[in-house]
Design goal:
181 residues; alpha/beta; six-stranded parallel sheet; 35% helix
Length: 181
């Protein structure tokens, strides 16, 4: 039986957004994130991390530094090292050829095939337009988190195009609406 999943942006969704974050000591969980991820797993959702890190492609910091920030985030979550079934760090800068950089559907499609994930029952969660565009490209539900750069105008434009975007105050607010996967 196919599984449902949450595909999660990192910065501004799980942790406080820090411009070009590359220092683990600057990682700070957003309120309720650990509780939300724990609850999502209890409901049977697989968790995937999908983060664009253009600072790597721009030569501002290394992939190793991004990975160190992810390790720190996982430590702060306190849910074990295997909290995410899979993770994708997309290092491409906007002017480079896209492989995994959101809104590319590639990572979600690969994880769906590998883990028998039903993308139609799954969610892409984030705070940027590229996160919502990833949801549309893969057939996932789109969950926008308030407080990021997404605007009501963008959300209204998508809705006028027949693309549903659900707006939530936090990741925990979204998870509280989910049913057993």
């Amino acid at each position: 039986m196919s599984k449902a999943a949450l595909f999660l942006d990192r910065d501004g969704t799980l942790i406080r957004h820090v411009h070009y974050l590359h220092k683990p000591e600057e990682v700070e969980l957003l309120p309720g994130v650990a509780q939300a991820l724990k609850r999502a797993r209890e409901l049977g959702y697989l968790l995937f991390l999908h983060t664009n890190q253009s600072g790597v492609g721009r030569g501002m910091f290394t992939l190793r530094e991004v990975e160190a920030c992810n390790v720190r985030m996982i430590e702060l979550l306190g849910l074990g090292k295997e909290v995410f079934t899979g993770a994708c760090i997309a290092p491409e800068a906007p002017d480079q050829s896209v492989v995994y950089r959101k809104p590319s559907p590639r990572f979600a499609q690969e994880m769906a095939a590998k883990y028998d994930v039903d993308l139609a029952k799954s969610w892409m969660v984030g705070d940027y337009p590229a996160d919502m565009e990833t949801a549309f490209a893969t057939g996932m539900h789109a969950a926008a988190l308030a407080g990021g750069p997404l605007t009501e105008v963008e959300i209204a434009r998508w809705r006028n195009l027949g693309r549903e975007v659900m707006l939530y105050t936090s990741l925990l607010a979204l998870v509280e609406t989910l049913k057993q996967a």
